[in-house]
Amino acid sequence: MATAGRLKLSSWRWCLRVVPQSRALAALVPGVTQVDNQSDFLGKKPHRQHPGVLHLPHVRLPPALANAAQILLLDSTVSDVEDKVQTLTNYLWSRHLPVEPEELQRRAMHLEKKFLENPDTPQTEKKLQAAVLHALRRTTYHWQELSYNEELSLVYMAARLDGGFAAVSRAFHEIQTRIPQFQPQTMMDFGSGTGSVTWAAHATWGQSLREYMCVDSSAAMLNLAEKLLKGGSESGKSYVPAVFFRQFLPVSPKVQFDVVVAAFALSELPSMADRTAVLHTLWRKTSHFLVLVENGTKAGHRLLMDARDLVLKGKEKSPLDPRPGFVFAPCPHELPCPQLMASQPLACSFSQGYHPIPFSWNMRRLQSQAEGTHLKSQHSAEPEAGVFQV
Ligand SMILES: C[S@@+](CC[C@H](N)C(=O)[O-])C[C@H]1O[C@@H](n2cnc3c(N)ncnc32)[C@H](O)[C@@H]1O
């Protein structure tokens, strides 16, 4: 029986482009040019058959990856995995962006003013400060950095490997469909985690890719990614050749990669300053496409819009590569996002179906769905993705 979960994927694939010849290529959706969008090119066909709608059927994990994940989970000593998967999933989907220091300061001053206006205000400076701090803690979202140790890495794999792979595959599919002649040779993945991006890149451009660079600050995650590539064991041959692991992002702009990816990774950084610094580095290291993927939540949408603006407004990519970029997908423009201009800003997201790894809880959930029982599905993820191109 074919089993399928649902997952939503962003409406944000952006391409930034400098080389005129490439821009012309990127503007083309097979069968349609941007100039003839007034003409009746659809004829009597329904809109869902618009050639610009780049469907990707339900994504299935490479069997070697799904098997390795199941082996690793079976071999692990982690208890209550299902509960931990649910807790992590809920946490990731309800996560907001960290509050910036300037905003904290603004709120603190506002609270202090309110306390001072109150006749019952604390008598001493020290007491006033304590009251402000207490109120601030009570009313401010407390963003927590996740420490991907061995257990959390495994739980993350169980929770997100299949959905993450599907989301990134969808973004790669768009590039491949619109520019079939693009044959990347090198790929760098920032915050590589389980290595799902490497697997998706290999599935898309395995013929041409000859180097995959995985960067992750967590040694446990890098270890897990390597084991997944080796079929769930420490030794053995890697399913994908030429994968290199690094704990630190190489900053030199001299070495560039054809495709640079950050999937669900920018949201792990503790401040806008950190995200800005990482984005600048990633962009400098991009020779063709920068692909950004985040959850399709308001926070994910906001974060990707900030990233888009940062890249578009950057004066110069790097002294070694001054080419500017442009949005490749999903937006057909580089104007402010209308979704964010609304009085109640909405998250913009896409949907991508995938076949979940047959972990016991996934099978139960699918069984319930098949029987018509309503269960809150963890596959209703709504990642956002952005693709930049230079
Ligand atoms: C949510 S996981 C995403 C993993 C992977 N990209 C995926 O899609 O499955 C985020 C990863 O970013 C890594 N990370 C967080 N901060 C980092 C940093 N400053 N440098 C490199 N990696 C970082 C974490 O260790 C974690 O593995």
UniProtKB/TrEMBL annotation:
Cross-referenced Gene3D superfamilies: Vaccinia Virus protein VP39
First-listed, main subcellular location of the protein, grouped into a coarse class: mitochondrion
InterPro entries found in the cross-reference section: Mt_RNA_Methyltransferase, Ribosomal_Rsm22-like, SAM-dependent_MTases_sf
GO cellular component: mitochondrial small ribosomal subunit
SUPFAM superfamilies in the record: S-adenosyl-L-methionine-dependent methyltransferases
UniProtKB keywords: 4Fe-4S, Iron, Iron-sulfur, Metal-binding, Mitochondrion, S-adenosyl-L-methionine, Transit peptide
Recorded GO MF terms: 4 iron, 4 sulfur cluster binding; metal ion binding; methyltransferase activity; structural constituent of ribosome
Region: Disordered, residue numbers: 370-390
Record has Glycoprotein as a keyword: no
Record's keyword annotation contains 4Fe-4S: yes
Pfam families listed in its UniProt record: Rsm22
Compartments it resides in: Mitochondrion matrix
Any one biological process term the GO annotation gives: ribosomal small subunit biogenesis
Subunit composition and interactions: Associates with the mitochondrial ribosome (mitoribosome).
Family: Belongs to the methyltransferase superfamily. Rsm22 family.
Function, as annotated: Mitochondrial ribosome (mitoribosome) assembly factor. Binds at the interface of the head and body domains of the mitochondrial small ribosomal subunit (mt-SSU), occluding the mRNA channel and preventing compaction of the head domain towards the body. Probable inactive methyltransferase: retains the characteristic folding and ability to bind S-adenosyl-L-methionine, but it probably lost its methyltransferase activity.
Protein name: Ribosome assembly protein METTL17, mitochondrial
Organism, as annotated: Heterocephalus glaber
Higher taxonomy: Eukaryota, Metazoa, Chordata, Craniata, Vertebrata
